[in-house]
Structures are given as C-alpha cells and as structure tokens.
Amino acid sequence: MLGQPLGDLHYHLRQLLEDRAIRVVDQIQKRNLAQTVYAYAKLPVYDHDDWWSLSPFERQVTSAVTIRAGMAESLAALWAGKLHSDPRLILTWKPIVLDPVGRRHLNEEQRRCWNRICEIEREATPRLEAAQEGGRMHVVNLLGFRRSSSSA
After folding, report:
1. How many angstroms separate the CA atoms of 113 and 120, rounded?
2. Is the pTM value of this prediction over 0.70?
3. Is residue 90 scored above 90 in pLDDT?
4. Which of 16, 19, 106 is nearest to 58 (CA)?
5. 117, 118, 123, 125 alpha-carbon torsion, rounded to 10°
6. pLDDT of residue 63
7. How far apart, in Å, are the Cα atoms of 102 and each of 9, 70, 94, 98, 113?
8. Which of 114, 90, 110 is nearest to 102 (CA)?
9. I need a labelling partner for 24 at 20 to 30 A (CA). Which of 12, 16, 36, 55 fits?
10. Residue 17 belongs to what H/E stretch?
11. 27 and 56 belong to one structural domain
C-alpha cells in the first residue's frame, strides 16, 4: 500500500508498537498468510524540531500514512453523504503565496489552531461522561505545505 519494502515497514511498525502509538486489533487469515490489523492509539503531532529529527525516509512514510488516513476518512464521509448533510461543515482549500516570514506565521497559526482543537476535544470529554452517552466522531484535516508544481 505504501510502496515501501516490507523490512522497512516491519521495523517502523515494531517501533510504533513499542511506543504504544498503534495497537493490534485483529489478525485476518488470507490463505496461508496472517495479516495483522493495527489501530492507532495516539495520533502523531510533529513540530519543527520533531519533524527534522526524523530521517527523510521516516518523514516520507509518516507523511504518506497521515495523508492516506485523512483522505480515506474524508472520502468515506463524502460517499456516505456526511459532508453535504452537515450544517456546520467547513470545507476549504486555497493556494497562497508566502515569503519565509509568512510561512513561519502560517505554521504558528496552524499550531495555535491545532492546540485549540485538542483543547475543545478535552473540554468535551467530561460533558460526554456526565451525559453517559457517546459523541459523534469528527475528522479534522489541517495541512499546510509547499505546492509541488508552482512558479512561486
């Protein structure tokens, strides 16, 4: 799925398991091969220092897994009719041209926004527990990256 050698993926999966970032939830037998099914235990958040402490390969794999998961959730919601029927949906996309200072400011704003999103989730937890009911899962995608084909 990721187009990476199995040996490399096995190493990274083992690291994620040891770090308790993922957990085994099932094993599916396909012919003579047992396929392990993993689920995330915690989602990664990388700041500048964390990101640059990874090797280029680790950054590429992390990017691929994160984008695939976010887009898979987005497409599943799209085809299930969850986007067009959500009265509070925010759906945005915009290419912007930035200088290095603007890029830094964008990064800082995304970090601030992400921290607030996590705070909103923490604030909801006691309300959900008090009401003794489950909430509804929402997916938040927050990307900011240099466009691959741009004259700027």
Report:
1. 11
2. no
3. no
4. 16
5. 120
6. 84
7. 36, 26, 15, 5, 16
8. 110
9. 55
10. helix 6-18
11. no
Rounded-to-integer distance, Cα 21 and Cα 43, Å: 7
Extract the tokens encoding 43: 């989602």
Helix ranges (DSSP H) in 80-142: 100-131
Q: How many domains does the chain have?
A: 3
Parent domain of 18: 1-42
Smallest CA-to-CA distance from 139 within 46, 71, 93 is with 71
CA distance 55 to 53: 7
Tell me the percentage of the chain whose pLDDT exceeds 90. 21
Query: What is the rounded CA–CA span in Å between residue 19 and residue 9?
Result: 15
Instruction: Based on the fold, state whether residues 70 and 125 are members of the same structural domain.
Output: no
Cα dihedral 15/19/23/29 (nearest 10): 20
Selection from 42, 4, 45 nearest residue 23 by Cα: 42
Residues 100-112, mean pLDDT to the nearest whole number: 94
